[in-house]
Specification:
This protein is an alpha/beta fold. It folds into two domains: 238 residues, Alpha-Beta Barrel (TIM Barrel), CATH 3.20.20; 106 residues, no CATH class. Helix content is 39%, strand content 13%. The strands form two sheets. An eight-stranded parallel β-sheet has the order 1-9-8-6-5-4-3-2. The protein has a three-stranded antiparallel β-sheet with strand order 7-11-10, with no helix packed on it. Helix 7 links the parallel strand 5 and strand 6. Helix 2 runs parallel beside helix 3 and helix 3 runs parallel beside helix 5. The chain is globular and about 55 Å long. The chain starts with 7 loop residues before the first helix and ends with a helix.
Length: 355
């Protein structure tokens, strides 16, 4: 295997490889995170869609499998603004799809996730658990929360999609920036989903951040193999973060419909949509993305209120054997996905990487 230089970030994280498994809420699992960390990378848990108690259980399960480093990701969006009129109209817009499966849509929608910016229980749990890394997606919490995590000994990552967001994160004192390119799968990490998006690619954003800031930059978006990791390192990144590459691994929580779509012609077609969750997110083209193709942003309820309806529709469709309404998040590199265990994939990625 080619020897990969170990930058300071990797030494600080106590990992051997510049490979970070993306913390995909609903897809990554304790088994996946542990396998990646055992193989020398940084395994990650997505805690944004669970409670403090749920996240604590995931951390405990991961640590029962490995004592190695762990990244726990939280969502730092602004709490949802409920608009009953918009929500009612959205329910009616999707009603025919529910009726297709013989199910009534929910009469009202709720905010199904509590943002970390308002979740004191999650903060208390993370301070007690002291994961190696706490990573932030969708923005920044108030300074006291960041300081409390620092005082507990966690390294802080912040996902950014622009130079302006990076400046805010650096000023807040984070330890590393995750440069999320436009080709990345899943939710855009943009601080303000309604602001203009320059749609910077992973290559351009990584180079911009490397040239402007002294702290480590982690390239994320469209990276599926060792060649992509090597390219990210050549751009000056300290590591690469891969999400879609791990969706098809044995330890993934992705259902059969999601996995099958990833290895079909569908993988060549990804779409950025708000319709599923209320925030822009890149998904395999499916019946839900088609449904949202002509929906104006203002017609979709706020995140994660819209997701309440999206999950209900997926559940109704899946019960009828239709996987076309799933949140099948995937980046533009989806056709390069491979089937194997998370640990095996991490080792293959390392062997493929040319520094």
């Amino acid at each position: 295997m080619t020897t990969i230089p170990i930058p300071e970030l990797l030494k600080r994280l106590k990992i051997d490889l510049p490979i970070i498994q993306a913390p995909m809420a609903g897809v990554s699992s304790p088994a996946m995170a542990a396998a990646v960390s055992e193989a020398g990378g940084l395994g990650s848990l997505g805690a944004g869609a669970t409670t403090a108690e749920g996240a604590a259980r995931m951390i405990a399960e991961t640590r029962a499998r490995t004592p190695k480093s762990l990244n726990v990701n939280v969502f730092t969006h602004q709490p949802a603004h409920s608009d009953p009129g918009v929500e009612a109209a959205w329910i009616e817009r999707l009603r025919p799809r529910f009726e297709e499966f013989g199910v009534e849509p929910p009469p009202t929608l709720r905010e199904i996730y509590t943002s970390f910016v308002a979740d004191d229980a999650m903060l208390t749990m993370l301070i007690a658990q002291k994961p190696t890394v706490v990573s932030l997606h969708f923005g920044l919490p108030e300074p006291r929360r960041l300081q409390a995590l620092r005082d507990a000994g966690s390294v802080l990552f912040a996902s950014v999609t622009s130079l302006g967001e990076a400046r805010l994160a650096v000023a807040a004192g984070v330890d590393a920036l995750v440069a999320q390119g436009y080709e990345a799968g899943g939710h855009r990490g943009a601080f303000d989903p309604d602001a203009p998006d320059d749609q910077l690619s992973t290559v351009v954003l990584t180079r911009l951040l490397v040239s402007k800031f002294d702290l480590p930059i982690i390239a994320a978006g469209g990276i599926m193999d060792g060649a992509g990791i090597g390219a990210a390192l050549a751009l000056g990144a300290a590591a690469a973060q891969l999400g879609t590459a791990y969706v098809a691994t044995d330890e993934s929580l992705a259902d059969d419909g999601y996995r099958n779509a990833l290895f079909s012609e569908v993988a060549h077609h990804t779409v950025l949509t708000r319709a599923i969750s209320g925030r822009p997110a890149r998904c395999l083209a499916n019946r839900f993305t088609a449904l949202g193709a002509d929906a104006a942003p203002a017609a979709v309820p706020s995140y994660p209120i819209a997701y309440d309806l999206g999950k209900a529709l997926h559940a109704a469709a899946k019960a009828a054997g239709d996987f076309g309404f799933g949140a099948q998040w995937a980046g533009q590199g989806a056709p390069l996905a491979r089937r194997m265990s998370a640990g095996a994939l991490t080792r293959v990625l390392a062997a493929e990487t040319i520094p």
